[in-house]
Write a structure and sequence with these properties.
alpha/beta, 2 domains, Rossmann fold, OB fold (Dihydrolipoamide Acetyltransferase, E2P), single chain, about 250 residues, five-stranded antiparallel sheet
Amino acid sequence: MKVAIIEDEVLAVERFKKVLNEVVDVDIENVLDSVESSVEYLKTNPQLDLLFMDIQLGDGRSFEILDQVEVKCPIIFTTAFDEYAVKAFKYNSIDYLLKPVRKEELHSAIEKFKKGNKLGNVRDIKELLLEMFHSSGNYKDRFLVKQGTKYLSINASEVAHIFTRERLLFLKTFDNKDYMIDGNLDELEKDLNPEKFFRANRQFIVSHRSVHQAFAWFDGKMKLSLIPESYEDIVISRLKAGEFKKWLGK
């Protein structure tokens, strides 16, 4: 059986290979670590029997791959982000496995593949919704940024604040470096851990660790002092001030 793996974490790839080889005899044709490289590879129409695909990649989400190229073979999604389960079913998914992938669950998914299970017969959709409802939450823990011709991976713990400037999106690290990133604040806000990051206003998302001081301001507003400093004053509206104080005191 010819398979390919789309996964950007080296250790996760090695762990998954080990479990996969314990479950079934496969030929791993390729391991891809980004949306861009996956699209280029799949455009060559490789004769794959099965594709294992992580959902959250460094340069985007794997659904972007499926929007750009037709994947003719079945897919087994492997990811820590169970919020994407329902969307995964819009594609040719045999199963949806949460990380760390367990041997018995992978074996079950492979058996479904062998029996020719099709979209819609994988799991009861109510079961998926319950899993999502009871999930403890998984949030974005790293960012892919470009520095010249190089790509760097920045951990979320290194991010002091994220901001928009002249319609572009940037993150500032605690060592006071700015990096341009893709996306927008509205989308990003949903992916970040709300215990660690707060949407201060239309232009800024701030890390709990970066807030040096918070001041009472005019008309019930609040003004923030960050370390490192932001490029302009950050003012929180009167309506959000109470929410911010609760968040800061957690």
